[in-house]
Amino acid sequence: MRFIQADFEVITPMFLGGANHEAGNIRPASVKAEILFWWRALNYHRFAFNNGKTVPEAEALKSFHTQEAKLFGCPTKGQGVFSLSARWVGQAPVMEGTTPIVEAFGQDTRDATGAKYLGYGIVTIKGQIEAEKSCIKAGAKFVIELVFKPSTSEHDIADIQRAVKLMGLLGGLGSRKRRGWGSLALTSLKSSALKRDGAKFGLAELQEFSLFPANTANFEAALNSAVLPSRSFDERSAPLSCFGSNTRMHRWSAGFASALDAMNALGNGYQLYRAWGRSEYGNLMPDRTTVSHKNFKADHDWFKVSKPAFKKADRGTYTVDSVKPPISANNMPERAIFGLPLGFAKGVEIETTEPFGRRASPLLFHIAKIGSQFYPVATYFQTQFLPLVQVGAEAAATRINVPGANNLPFQPDTTVVTNYLDGTCRNTLDGARNTHPYFNGVRVLP
After folding, report:
1. Cα maximum dimension of the chain
2. What is the C-alpha separation between 247 and 338, in angstroms, rounded?
3. What whole-number distance in Å separates Cα of residue 222 and Cα of residue 216?
4. Which listed residue, 49, 196, 251, 301, has the most CB atoms within 10 A of its CB?
5. Is 119 exposed, middle or buried (0-12, 13-18, 19+ CB in 10 A)?
6. Alpha-carbon distance values, 199 to 153, 189, 193, 205, 221 (Å)
7. Listing from the earlier edge strand, what are the strands of the sheet with 363-370?
8. Which uninterrupted H or E stretch holds 35?
9. What does the angle CA 210 – CA 441 – CA 174 come to, to the nearest 5 degrees?
């Protein structure tokens, strides 16, 4: 019988669970959704760009979703070409709420300042797991098995296997996975249907062939090989996250001895780039030593000027009577490109108009295990930021709501993200430009 078996290691604490935040269950549906995400990212170009020509979006999406439904299933067409099961190797090591997050990394005394910044909503300001949540400890292992229908083609199996591999190179499971939590590493992969250069591999050969990268050269070669077919596709107007000629990927220049060290370095640099600092501490960062670079003065001023107009309303929220200067597309907070909603104070946030409400960040963080070391990896999908909606006879980008004004246009500035990756940023108070290795990395793509 045709099947794929993939073994994974949990690299950073994984916050699984449903409404009750129970971390011990690994649901096949969640794993399947992650495989689907990477399948989409790898394959959309095939439907949108064919024989050197751009295919109309409606036509591309129709054929794309038809293939997706065939492989992964949908409510109208039933199950796809495979069934999926998932199980822990041994008993899942669950860490309960209020436990210090460093213990979920297998540490006991190290600082977690950077990790806390990346863990908004799952880690408290004191560095503990949120009281009503729980997580799977780093180092846990699980196995997934995909069993294919006999009629499934070699091409379709290979497509899904590529997505499983990419999930093991860049993916994760659970809450805040786009900020590096729940990062995964593929440790082995077995398949009864994989062919390479016309030869059929045995299971033992495949297991050795598919171990996670032993060094950065292997890691980058695996990534470049996976996304190479999409490199001629300009994905900037694509309506979903996918690889293309503008996709940026950076790897930290040097590895860390632990996943916690990697998360701290990643989170500290990201916070230094984005944050203004606490005014009561002289605009210092949480370490009380590093001075904020104040990269986004316009964002700070936007809220500072607006703040006097904010007044407390019922249920602890805030409303705005008026906002000065007038809000427009030209002075919208730049950091909205990192994802929506964007919060400024309790109950005060920027969000997209209905029915969307949210926009996941196009910048994905991952902690990769390469050999015995841990490397932060950042992937930036430069695709359409907000979906197009019909406005009269024309399609227009979804608009956003801000305190005191709704349905406003927003044109994201991609340099807000690329400057972070490249180590440059906005003009400072004296008109200069900060240069700093916020993401201290090397470029992998393009």
Report:
1. 71
2. 15
3. 10
4. 251
5. buried
6. 16, 17, 11, 12, 22
7. 363-370, 373-380, 248-252, 441-445
8. helix 28-48
9. 55
Percent pLDDT > 70 in the chain is: 81
DSSP 241: -
How many Å apart are CA 94 and CA 123, to the nearest integer? 15
Cα–Cα distances (Å) from 340 to 224, 360, 418, in that order, read 30, 7, 18
Residue 82 pLDDT grade (very low, low, confident, very high; cuts 50, 70, 90): very high
Q: How far apart are CA 289 and CA 212, in angstroms?
A: 38
Tell me the C-alpha distance between 48 and 70, whole Å.
18
In this structure, are residues 142 and 204 in contact, taking their beta carbons and an 8 Å threshold? no
Rounded Cα distance between 96 and 91, Å, is: 15
* 130-152 mean pLDDT: 94
Tell me which DSSP letter residue 132 carries.
T
Please classify residue 29 by burial: count the beta carbons closer than 10 Å to its beta carbon, then call 0-12 exposed, 13-18 middle and 19+ buried: exposed
Size of the chain in residues: 446
Across the strands, what pairs with 377? 251, 366
Tell which wins on pLDDT, 433 or 130: 130
Whether the ω angle into residue 325 lies within 30 degrees of 0, i.e. cis, is yes
Three-state DSSP class for residue 342: strand
Q: Are 104 and 95 in contact (CB under 8 A)?
A: yes
Rounded to the nearest 10 degrees, the angle between the axes of helix 154-170 and helix 57-72 is 90
pTM: 0.89
Q: E strands within 371-439?
A: 373-380, 388-391, 394-397, 400-402, 405-408, 424-427, 433-435
Residue at token pair 């997706």:
68
Is 250 within 8 Å of 441 (Cβ atoms)? yes
Determine how many CB atoms are found less than 10 A away from the CB of residue 393.
Answer: 5
Handedness of CA 291, 293, 299, 302 (dihedral sign): positive
